[in-house]
Amino acid sequence: MANWNPWHGCTKLSAGCLNCYVYRGDERYGREHSDQPHKNGEFDLPLRKKRDGSWLIPSGELVYTCFTSDFLLDAADQWREEAWEMMRQRSDLRFLFITKRIDRFARCLPRDWGDGWNNVIICCTVENQDRTDYRLPIFLEAPIKHRHIVCEPLLERIELRRYLGGWIEGLVAGGESGQNARVCDYSWILDLREQCIERGVPFRFKQTGARFRKEGRLYHIERRLQHSQARKANINTGEDMM
Q1: What is the pLDDT of residue 33?
Q2: Tens digit of pLDDT for each residue in 176-191?
Q3: Is 98 exposed, middle or buried (0-12, 13-18, 19+ CB in 10 A)?
Q4: CA-based diameter of the chain, in Å?
């Protein structure tokens, strides 16, 4: 597994962005202007080699792409063609990115995309019913070979059975981290799990979030425990790479 952030920074778009971890991280490290994206020094990371001439990121790796921004961000239009070209050249890698801007997808494609590239996995994130019903129809109509849904931060109970099926390779759900995190209710997580089981979609409970409600009781969970507590629930189904 590798991380590649060709650019950094984003602009808030919807309710799920309110307490964005990118902004929190920049504040913690004294960085400014999270909403003014800039090209990173590691922009060409997929093409870098070691002294012996071998790839720095070896063949077969899963590359988490653009996790400090949004790959379809309009402010990154000037850099995206080069990023696509590196993905094209490194067809031996699998690139995974998450987006809230699936409505920009058709305008951001490389010229030879066709019905999708085998080495690109695209995850559409939805945080509430409103964004579910707006983004997922677009997501399902788009020419994509590998699709995942990310319900994180989960802000309310979501009904999405009509969007689930064999065309979705996995669904990830989780609460919101950070000091100002909004509540995630365990019943919402379990409901998503049942919907996935009904439609044969692998499900993963990724993290509880900082404020986690279970059976009417509110728990305040430290950041370092949010992933492990989710794993202890032991409710994941099938295989999911995220």
Answers
A1: 61
A2: 999 999 999 999 999 9
A3: buried
A4: 58
